[in-house]
C-alpha cells in the first residue's frame, strides 16, 4: 500500500483534533506480532502533496519511484532532464516564431516604406501635373491635354481612401477639381463645372476650418470662392457673383497678411482686385473700375516677370482699355490696346509657340476695330480687319473644342462683317456658326447676346430690298427671350439690343404710326439715361434720333440710315 496525503494533518487526532486527521490507525501506530494495532506511534510512510509537504510534483515522483522500484534521486534526475528537454524545445519553437514574426514585421515595414515612397513620388508627380505641366500645356491652348491632366489627378486620389489623405493631398485634389471645372466650363458643360467647383469649395472650406491661419489653406479656399462665383458671372448675375468674389478678395487680403513676403500672395491680391474691377465695369461703374485696374497694375509691375504675371498684365491692360473707352476716352483706350498688342508681340518673339496669346490678340483687334470705327480712322481700321481675320482663323484652328475661343473669333468676325459694304461677305456662314455656338452654351450671356446682335445686324445688312419679314421675326424672338431674364444686371446688359430692336421695329409698316414713334422714343430714352458705355457700344446717342421723333416716318431711308449708324454698319 502506498499512502498519499492530499489534505488534513497526520496525528491530528492525538493532538485533540480528530476531524483534521488524515491517516488511518494502521498507518499511525505500530503493529503487534499478532498483526493487531498497538498504541505505539509509528513513523508514517506517505507522500505528502500538500504545499507545506513534498508538493504535488515531488509527491508524484515518490509514488512512481515506489511503483517502479527506483531510487527517488534517480527518478528526480530523469524528470529534471525531461523537463529541460521540453523547455529547450519550447525555447527553440519560440525562437522560430519570433524569427518568423520579425521577418514578417520587416517585410510589412519595408512594404509600408515602399508604399509611402511610392505615394510621395505619386504626389510629387501630381504636384508637377497641377503646376509645371499645366503651365507648359496652357500656352499650347489645347483643352484635351489639360483635361487629361485633371482626370489623371482625380483618378489618382479616387483610388485611395479619403481617410488616408492628408490635408495637402486634399488640397491638391481640390486644385484638380478647379482645373477640370474650368475645362468643363470652356467646353460648355456648365452643370459639370458647377458640381466640380462646389465639391472643391466644400473640401477647401473644411481644410480652412481646420487650419484657419495656414497660408496654403487660405489660398486654396480663395481659389474655390472665385470659381464658385464664375458661373454666376458668366450668366450675367453679377449680384450673385459679387457675394463669392467679395469672399475671394477678403481671403486674398488675409493671405497677404499671413504670408507678406510671398509673390503668390501679391499675385492673388492682384487677381482679386482685377475681379472686383471687372464686376464694376459690368455694373457701369467705369471710373471705379479703372481705379481698381490701375491699382492692380501697380501690384503686378513689382512682381517677378513670370509667364503668369506677363499674361496677367496683358489681360489687365485690356481691361484698362475697355474702361477708358466706356468713359469715352477713346485715344487712351486705343493707346492701351496698342500697348497690349506690343506686349504680346514681344513675348511671341521670345516664344513663338505660345499659342494662348492668340486669344488676347483677337480680343484686342476686336476692340480696336470698334474704336477705329468710332474715331473714323479708316486706314488703321482696314489694317486691323486684315490682321484680325488671320488671328481669328488661327484661334479657331488652335482648339476647335474651346467654345471660348469660338466666341472671341465670332465677335471679331461680326465686327469685321458689319464693316463690309452691302452685298459682300467675309464669312457667309457666320450667322449659322454664331447660332450654333449659342445653342451649345445657353447659360453664357455673352454668347446669347452675340447671337441676337448677329441676328438683327446681319439680318439688316443682308435683307432683300423692302423684305423685312425675317428681320422683324428676329426682333420678336429676341424680345421674347429677353423677357425671361429677371436679373437686373442682365437687363442692363441688354440695353444695346433693346435700342436696336426698337429702332428696327419702327420700320414695320404694319405698326401704327404712334407705335412706331413710341418705339423710337423708347430707344431714345434708353440712350438718354444710359452711361457713355452704351453710346460707345451702339455707335450713336439720343440726338441722332431727334429728327425721327418729329417726322412722319414716311422716309424709311432716313430711318434706315440712323439704324445702320447705331448698329455699326458701313454706310451705304
Molecular structure report:
- By secondary structure, the chain is mostly helical.
- The chain is about 75% helix and about 0% strand.
- The protein is built from 24 helices and four strands.
- The strands form two sheets. A two-stranded parallel ribbon has the order 1-4. Strands 2-3 form a two-stranded antiparallel ribbon.
- A hairpin with a 5-residue loop joins strand 2 (about 30) and strand 3 (about 35-40).
- Helix 16 runs antiparallel to helix 17 (about 445-460).
- It is rod-shaped.
- Residues about 130-135 have low confidence and may be disordered.
**Order of secondary-structure elements:** EHEEEHHHHHHHHHHHHHHHHHHHHHHH
Q: Could you describe the largest sheet, including whether it forms a barrel?
A: 2 strands, parallel
Q: Stretches where pLDDT falls below 50 for ≥5 residues?
A: 128-134
Helix count?
A: 24
Overall shape:
rod-shaped
What is this structure, in a nutshell?
InterPro entries: TPR-like_helical_dom_sf. The chain is an all-alpha fold and 572 residues long.
Top keywords for this entry?
two-stranded antiparallel sheet, mainly alpha, rod-shaped, two-stranded parallel ribbon, 572 residues
Amino acid at each position: 500500500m502506498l499512502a498519499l496525503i492530499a489534505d488534513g494533518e497526520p496525528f491530528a487526532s492525538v493532538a485533540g483534533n480528530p476531524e483534521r486527521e488524515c491517516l488511518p490507525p494502521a498507518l499511525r501506530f505500530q503493529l503487534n506480532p499478532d498483526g493487531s494495532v498497538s498504541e505505539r506511534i509509528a513513523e508514517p510512510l506517505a507522500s505528502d502533496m500538500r504545499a507545506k509537504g513534498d508538493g504535488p510534483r515531488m509527491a508524484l515522483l515518490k509514488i512512481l519511484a515506489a511503483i517502479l522500484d527506483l531510487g527517488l534521486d534517480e527518478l528526480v534526475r530523469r524528470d529534471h532532464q525531461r523537463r529541460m528537454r521540453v523547455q529547450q524545445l519550447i525555447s527553440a519553437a519560440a525562437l522560430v516564431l519570433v524569427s518568423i514574426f520579425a521577418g514578417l514585421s520587416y517585410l510589412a515595414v519595408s512594404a509600408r516604406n515602399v508604399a509611402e515612397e511610392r505615394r510621395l513620388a505619386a504626389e510629387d508627380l501630381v504636384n508637377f501635373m497641377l503646376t509645371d505641366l499645366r503651365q507648359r500645356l496652357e500656352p499650347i491652348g489645347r483643352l484635351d491635354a489639360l483635361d487629361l491632366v485633371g482626370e489623371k489627378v482625380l483618378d489618382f486620389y479616387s483610388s485611395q481612401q479619403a481617410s488616408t489623405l492628408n490635408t495637402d493631398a486634399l488640397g491638391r485634389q481640390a486644385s484638380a477639381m478647379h482645373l477640370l471645372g474650368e475645362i468643363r466650363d470652356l467646353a460648355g458643360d456648365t452643370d459639370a463645372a458647377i458640381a466640380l467647383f462646389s465639391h472643391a469649395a466644400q473640401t477647401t472650406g473644411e481644410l480652412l476650418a481646420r487650419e484657419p491661419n495656414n497660408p496654403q489653406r487660405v489660398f486654396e479656399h480663395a481659389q474655390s470662392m472665385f470659381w464658385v462665383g464664375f458661373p454666376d458671372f458668366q450668366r450675367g448675375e453679377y449680384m450673385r457673383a459679387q457675394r463669392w468674389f467679395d469672399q475671394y478678395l477678403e481671403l486674398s487680403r488675409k493671405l497677404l497678411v499671413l504670408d507678406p513676403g510671398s509673390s503668390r500672395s501679391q499675385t492673388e491680391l492682384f487677381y482679386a482686385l482685377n475681379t472686383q474691377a471687372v464686376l464694376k465695369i459690368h455694373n457701369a461703374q467705369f471710373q471705379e473700375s479703372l481705379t481698381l485696374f490701375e491699382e492692380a497694375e501697380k501690384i503686378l509691375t513689382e512682381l517677378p516677370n513670370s509667364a503668369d504675371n506677363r499674361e496677367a498684365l496683358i489681360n489687365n491692360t485690356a481691361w484698362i482699355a475697355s474702361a477708358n473707352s466706356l468713359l469715352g476716352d477713346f485715344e487712351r483706350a486705343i493707346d492701351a490696346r496698342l500697348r497690349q498688342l506690343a506686349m504680346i508681340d514681344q513675348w511671341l518673339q521670345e516664344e513663338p509657340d505660345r499659342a494662348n496669346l492668340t486669344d488676347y490678340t483677337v480680343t484686342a483687334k476686336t476692340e480696336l476695330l470698334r474704336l477705329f470705327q468710332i474715331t473714323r480712322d479708316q486706314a488703321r481700321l482696314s489694317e486691323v480687319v486684315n490682321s484680325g481675320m488671320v488671328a481669328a482663323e488661327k484661334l479657331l484652328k488652335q482648339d476647335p473644342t474651346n467654345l471660348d475661343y469660338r466666341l472671341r473669333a465670332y465677335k471679331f468676325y461680326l465686327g469685321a462683317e458689319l464693316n463690309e459694304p452691302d452685298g459682300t461677305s467675309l464669312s457667309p456662314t457666320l450667322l449659322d456658326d454664331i447660332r450654333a455656338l449659342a445653342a451649345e452654351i445657353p447659360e453664357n450671356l455673352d454668347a446669347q447676346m452675340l447671337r441676337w446682335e448677329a441676328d438683327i445686324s446681319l439680318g439688316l445688312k443682308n435683307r432683300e430690298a423692302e423684305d423685312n419679314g425675317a428681320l422683324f421675326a428676329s426682333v420678336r424672338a429676341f424680345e421674347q427671350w429677353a423677357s425671361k431674364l429677371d436679373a437686373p444686371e442682365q437687363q442692363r446688359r441688354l440695353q444695346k439690343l433693346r435700342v436696336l430692336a426698337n429702332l428696327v421695329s419702327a420700320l414695320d409698316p404694319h405698326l401704327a404710326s404712334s407705335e412706331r414713334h413710341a418705339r423710337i422714343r423708347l430707344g431714345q430714352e434708353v440712350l438718354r439715361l444710359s452711361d457713355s458705355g452704351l453710346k460707345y457700344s451702339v455707335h450713336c446717342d439720343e440726338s441722332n434720333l431727334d429728327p425721327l421723333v418729329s417726322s412722319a416716318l414716311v422716309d424709311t431711308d432716313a430711318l434706315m440710315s440712323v439704324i445702320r449708324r447705331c448698329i455699326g454698319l458701313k454706310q451705304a
